[in-house]
Amino acid sequence: MRRVFIVDGARTPFLKSRNRPGPFSASDLATAAGTGLLCRQRFAPDQLDEVILGCASPSPDEVNIGRVVALRMGCGHRVPGWTVMRNCASGMQALDSALVNIRLGRSELVLAGGVDALSRAPVLFSDAMVHFLADWYAAKGIAARLAVLRRFRPGHLAPVLGIMKGLTDPIVGQLMGQTAENLAHFFDIARDDMDRFAVESHLRVVAAQDGGHFAEVLPLIDRDGKVYEFDDGVRRDSSEENLARLKPFFDRKYGRVTPGNSSQISDGAAWLVLASEAALERHGLVPLGEIIDSQWAALDPAQMGLGPIHAMTPIMSRQGLSLADIDRFEINEAFAAQVIACRRAWDDEVYCREHFGLDQPVGMIDTGRLNVDGGAIALGHPVGASGARIVLHLLASLRRDGLRRGLAGICIGGGQGGAMLVETMR
Amino acid sequence: MNSSYQHLVVVRHPDGVVWLQLDKAGSSTNTLSRAVLDELANVFAALEQAPPRGLVIASAKPAGFIAGADIDEFTRIGSAEAARELVERGWSLFNWLARLPFPTLALIRGHCMGGGLELSLACRYRIVVDEPGTRLALPEVMLGIVPAWGGMLRLPTLIGPGAALDLMLSGRSVDARKAKKLGLADVCVPVRVMENAANMLVLSGQPRHSPTLIQRLMNGPLKPLVAKKAREQLAAKARREHYPAPWAVIDIWAGFGGNALAVPTDHPASLASIFGSPTARNLIRVFLLQDRLKGFGKDVVFAPRYVHVVGAGVMGGDIAALCALRGLTVTLQDQTVARIAPAIARAAKLFERKHRGDVRAQRFALDRLIPDPDGSGVAHADVIIEAISENLEAKHALFAGLEARARPDALLATNTSSLRIEDVASVLANPERLVGIHFFNPVAQMPLVEVVAGANTDAALQQQAAAFVRSLDKLPLPVRSAPGFLVNAVLGPYMLEALRCVDEGMAPESIDAALVAFGMPMGPIELADTVGLDIAVAAGRALTGDTQSEAPRALLSRFEAGQLGKKTGRGFYRWENGKPVRAQVSAEVTAGLAERIVAPLLAAAQRLVEDGVVADADLADAGIIFGTGYAPFSGGPLHAHACALSAQPGAGRRSPDDTVAIP
Question: What global pTM score does this model have?
């Protein structure tokens, strides 16, 4: 089987959504990170075989955002660009699609990644308003128009937030946060456990920022010359007392999942350069690591937060690996409850037997090896970008500490999970 | 119909429409030479015999529609009669075109200048093709002449005198969309439907574009009022004694029905006085000099796509922005992203201005301008431009590290204004690789770029640098490495003399007024305030080598007090909202003052020509005009001096001071 190497990678800072459109569109973000990454390569942008971009909610004017960004990055007319969508794992799907094409020999050198600008999620007219407008445009003459106008109600103007639609499971009708409540209920995860986990995420990001461990972040500059250098959602003052004050958001009043122990809604982009052995040789590239394996899995949409272990377990079996063989884990922190549930489920004999057919539980992931530099609760979760971000950062953290093997997992709205096994070069 | 034309292709289509394509023999562009006009007359005569259902006039040249009259023909005009004959030729021909008894249409794609636009104005309809290259203008005043082939008659009646005078007096061009908006074109279409549109419109029978009521009033009873207003506005921009042509345009439109032939010979707007004035000769000279500058680098094949700029200060940042604006990929390096950010903000403003209303073009230009704090772009770039502080050690450190990482065929350049190229190049393994590419501030506005060869510089690389400058649509001036090169070396002594006048007690206002009256775009004291007195002090030291000649007290005292000019709000003037606050001075301009201050500039220019810093006197004049804005109507300081000498051989004219070596 042809090997697939990770040559380099970069991402934008993740910018927290401030309840209004952020300074950059999704394609702005992906273009900025991509041009910065490409200009430091030994090959020219037009030598790529393809550009694959994961995006959960491209804006209506750039639905195939992968192609738009490829052209904006200066890849030229002849480099194909396409967009993949698997909700929260769109960025990881882009890496996996690149991997497949390289394994098949269809591509040698691919730029793959993910992006989303959730602050720019569309605000829609309600169905009632759309019908009203249709009647209005159909009406001819003043009398007909007046008749239509009489049917207008102020309620028609109530906007529909695209992002709330996107964060609601269309099959079980639950918000993503409500699926996290399901897991908290099932595994009896206390609010305190979640808040403690969230504080740890913030503290780890702060330590990593201060230690210069986010070298993959390329600063952004907007049109007014303002510099965005760091992930701006992290709270240096995060504490359990502060988080305890927040109200449950998804199951109001009686729930346990709050905005504080959930991932943040953010804008951001992340890219990786993937190459075959032949491409390494042709361009004289030195790889950072190798993608060994990847897996997709599916489960009950109401349990979507357990997706990561459903995807990670088959990789472990196939590769003959035990927990001790994995030096680092990155599990995307959609919700504290969901990551905690993943740990507990893997350590649960019954769950492992029923769902994975294992005689023994996989075991408890050591927190010293899991999300060592924090995660999406502190950094933010620009949906399409996160899958690429965790693979990129997993490799960075392995290399920093001279370690070898890392496993990244991500839960996917709709009841799926994705996982990717990487190794640094020996 | 005679079908064997030399410069035209005439085809009668089955639908009864005749397509007349201009295709001037032996030329890449169409110009309206005598031969072309004669052939057009033959075609008109033939078509009158067998009238078509419609006539479409288009160009067979990919370069554009029509570039205007044949400039070679009117540089050869020797007499007032010849000028009259030239005007008469186009005026009658286009009147004939306007009278043809069938519908006529000009299909305009690419440049449509001067006589070309006047031809299309004589048609019933005009279609413009929506492409960036489509530009329409009546630039005659820039050559010191007037649009006498019907432009002054037809443009105001078509689009109203307001817009028409604006176009004719400024000479500026409009693009396809603007032309449609003004009513200059009936429709603006994409290339893919242009032939179809031409056929349909010429057969449509639709009435010609008519001006609005107010435009008709302005062209009728309100004419004197409009003319008065136009003269007032013109007075603020161009003096009649320097630039007679725009004044004549107003006179001919307002008083002679747009017909230059109707102006009596003794009138200041007559053809005799326009074509006979030194201004017209000199502006044509400037036009030809500009063409000469445009020719530098033409013979080398060098089409850079990727530029790396080191130093994101005002110069470096603006050079990078210009390159991105012109379609190049640019990496911009400085020590931190924070230092690069202000350059990105300025670039965004530039792109907004240059691509007004085109959000996509603005965004793509920004995409091409890549912040590169690590200097990764060095390895890819076709051209690498250093624009860091004027510190030799810093430049040495930079180039020493840069040479090994750059591609072996990359052009290495420095934007230094005060260091010698060979001194900067001394750290290079191949010092002959370094070229000076010296831009002027503000980069986007200043047309000239000095391309500097050091003592060892490979001549082929200087040519490449010139080709690169042309690709940015700037004018390259080849010069040799010497303090201040050409432009700063002549400006320095000029400003020094002006500052000495301040030391002698003259008011900055009087000095500036004298030189503006002389024809400078800005007085020397205001110029000093604008560039910054700190820069002026440093430049003075660099030019004189040391403190050998004492810097003016007026300059030093302000410099030491931290009054650095415009940027600190105080220098020789107080600056408010980016404008100097001037005290009232008497309108009387001190006699001989401008000549005194210009004399050192002239002397320096002569010395630089003698020393071979610039190849010849014409290039020196070109550099001084395009680099400093020096009175274009004069034809340049050396040319004006030579003219004055030949006019009064042996006579001691008032201007040159004793130190001038008169050849």
Answer: 0.92
Chosen for mutation from B366, B369, B372 (greatest number of chain A CBs closer than 10 Å) is B366
Asked if A39's CB is within 8 angstroms of B377's CB, the reply is: yes
Determine which helix (DSSP H) or strand (DSSP E) holds B85, and give its type and residue range: helix B80-99
| Chain B residues 348-377 within an 8 A CB cutoff of chain A | 348, 363-364, 366-368, 370-372, 374, 376-377
Q: What is the pLDDT of residue B652?
A: 41
Whether the per-residue pLDDT at B622 is higher than 70: the answer is yes
Domains and CATH numbers, chain B: 8-276 (3.90.226.10), 306-481 (3.40.50.720), 484-663 (1.10.1040.50)
Q: Is B641 a catalytic residue?
A: no
Tell me which chain A residues have a C-beta less than 8 angstroms from the C-beta of B367. Answer: 31, 35, 72-74
Express as a percent the part of chain A with pLDDT over 70. Answer: 100
Whether chain A has a CB inside 8 Å of the CB on B523: the answer is no
Cross-strand partners of B622: none
- Which helix (H) or strand (E) segment holds residue B268: the answer is none
Q: Which of A55, A75, A88, A352 is catalytic?
A: A88
Per-residue model confidence as pLDDT tens digits over B566-579 = 989 999 999 998 89
Annotated active-site residue B450? The verdict is yes
- The superfamily CATH assigns to domain A176-213+292-419 is Thiolase/Chalcone synthase (3.40.47.10)
Three-state DSSP at A262 gives strand
Residues 6 or more apart in contact with residue B46 via CB below 8 angstroms: B1, B2
CA distances from B615 to B489, B623, B633 (A): 15, 11, 22
The predicted structure's pLDDT at residue B3: 59
B137-181 pLDDT, tens per residue? 999 999 999 999 999 999 999 999 999 999 999 999 999 999 999
* Shortest CA gap B338–chain A (Å): 7
One-character DSSP codes across B382-425? SEEEE---S-HHHHHHHHHHHHHHS-TTPEEEE--SSS-HHHHH
**Is the ipTM above a cut-off of 0.90?**
yes
Tokens 């301040």 label which residue? B502
Q: Please report the DSSP string for B495-518 in residue order.
A: HHHHHHHHHTT--HHHHHHHHHHH
